[in-house]
Amino acid sequence: MSDAMVAPPPDLGRRIAALPATYGLKVALVAVLTLYIAFLFDLDHTYWSLITVPLIVRPDGGTTVWRSLERLTGTLLGCAAGFVLAATFGQEPRTIIPALAIYLFIVGYLARRQSGLDAYGYAIAGFVALLIALDAGPHIDTAFPLAVTRATETAIPVIVAFAVMLVVFPVSVADEVRDSLGAAREATLAASAAVLGRSGDDLRYERTVLPRLALVNTALRALSFERNRRHHMRHRLNAVAAALNRVALRAEAVRISLRQNLPGCTGPVVAAGLQQLGDALERLPPPAGPAPAHLACAAQLTSIADSLAPTGLAAPPGVEDFAPRAMLWRLESLARSLSDLMEAEATLLDPSRPAPKTRPIVRRYADTLGAMQGALRPVFTFSVLSAIWLVSGWPDGLVLTILGSALSLVMPVIVPRALRVKAAISIGLGIVVGSIISLVLMVVLAQMEGFGAFALVFGGTFFAIFVNAYRLPNLPFAIGATIAICVGFQPQNAPVYDPLALFNTTTTLLLLPPTLVAALTIVFPENADWIKNHLARATDHLLRHKAIAAQLSRDVYAEEFFDVLSEFDFGPGEDREGQHLRQRARAALLAGDALLAIAEVEATGHLPRSLASLAQPLRTAVTSALHDGQGSSTVFTRIHQALPTALAEGEEAQRSAAMCFAASAELLGAIVAERWLSRRMADAS
């Protein structure tokens, strides 16, 4: 199957566009053109324009557009808020500092409630408001000009970035989505094959499937901002991603059932079904294969699903024959999910097929407590830095207060949790290198005249810095170097080369990394204990208030839970308690999916009354298991007693509904019996 996952190599244009040197060239062009326009209009703070560049220009068009729009929107919001705060509270530090702290808490909270780069817009709104309100100080009459200037100088790099990204080796984020889907497809199908071969394990699902599905969702979010393609592929790609989510979830349900050795999982009928579906999985066409091959494979998988359907067998004489039927039902569900995946991929490959209408695939789990804690971090950082600045009277304390507070707000929404401290250190290294570069630029550019020479030297500098920032882990270093050049060198129409001022600025900027590390590790540090708390809370909330209350569809529930499992991850070295909480979350994902499947068949009206009357007691048993780890087994006994009649009588629709209910209840019974839903590790088997 691994050979089948290999896609054809990209064409020459994509290979050139993917080169780190191409990305460095784009950033250099955007930087030089931005400065040219700023010089042309003789703007006062040209470095404001320049410092925007590394934060918005990314290799693909969709992410650049997304970042640019969020940057511009956040800037406009911050300009308006900064002006209002300066005009209302700016006369005295004792009024403006508390007002800004409250504002930072609001935008910080809103940022942590968003997904992806949407959070970046709120973070920028906080940064810009700080800049305008503190720069204006008691001089209220300067607040409005500062706001207008800031908005203008942010709009310049945004417009320039649009032009450069659409002209110079343009890269569609659809290509990134396809690559992400390919990686997620390979991981998901490999995990499914391992499950069917009875060798599936937690580690494969945790470390390969979940992270790659999360990357697909982020790329799809960026794609929604890209409209420059004639054949927009968002709906088709959404359909493939949704199908992959379902395959991952159905395969995990089969894995758990096999792992628990539920009765009937080792019988010859089930073994034949596992072999049949495993063989079909080996024959899947590659993702870039011809659409007819995908459609043919979808038809074969549908035929396999029909042959596995347990309702097609003779009615069982007793409940003891139900267990293998439940396992066949889970295999049938997996086969139909794989068939849906092949159909979605065929539609993606063949533009003549009608595109499905899909909703956005990304659902963000709203962690209210985590958002409040995250919002308090920049508030605390701002309060401490502003107090030091005001008490000491340190002239450069304003720079540290603005940048330190802003980065403590921005970094957690754009840098993964595990990389934040490393990113802060990388920013510090970038500041050192950027300061050295600034000194060299002062010496070299003092000997040159004309914008052409300036553009060549300055553009070459940015190219050298950003050629290695194509990969996200290297971007903080480049951002640190850019901050040092912008604040220390401050390129402008009438250059002022002041090495002493550069030294003072560098000394101040070098306090940024320890400030950020302290903010990240002291104020609500998001360490293993923090993650355990929030993972347990999120698991409770989603299962109790979303699945048990039947407030979401199965697809949306899975999306939110995948987001939780991606967000609250410990890394490879978690302790036994962390492993238990991860297992608990995965069990809750399966339990919630089973409860929502029951809610779906209830809504059809086909569920026999003998089983329908047991739906609410079943939910109560799961709620009790969440509370004390052990739900009542009475309801599961009653379901088993009602099965023979429910499965033997009625039309096909009634028997299918009964089968879905009973198979879902069996999985729930196993999860409850193992006490996997208990928060306490000692309670779980």
Class based on secondary structure composition and strand pairing: mainly alpha
Distance between the termini: 35 Å
The global form is elongated
Please give the largest β-sheet.
none
**Percent of residues in β-strands:** under 5%
How big is the Rg? 29 Å
Strand segment count? 0
Oligomer: single chain
Number of helices: 27
| Helical residues, percent | over 70%
Return the average pLDDT rounded to an integer: 84
Order of helices and strands: HHHHHHHHHHHHHHHHHHHHHHHHHHH
Q: Note poorly predicted spans.
A: 1-8, 312-319
Protein architecture, described:
With 685 residues, the chain is mainly alpha-helical. The chain has helices spanning 12-17, 20-40, 46-56, 61-89, 93-112, 118-136, 143-167, 173-196, 202-223, 234-259, 268-282, 291-308, 322-349, 368-392, 397-414, 420-445, 451-466, 475-489, 499-509, 512-522, 528-547, 554-567, 576-604, 609-612, 615-628, 634-648, 652-673. Helix 2 (20-40) runs antiparallel to helix 17 (451-466), helix 4 runs antiparallel to helix 5 and helix 9 (202-223) runs antiparallel to helix 10 (234-259). The longest helix is centred in the N-terminal third of the chain and has 29 residues, at 61-89. It is elongated and about 90 Å long. The two termini are 35 Å apart. The model is unreliable at 1-8 and 312-319 (pLDDT under 50).
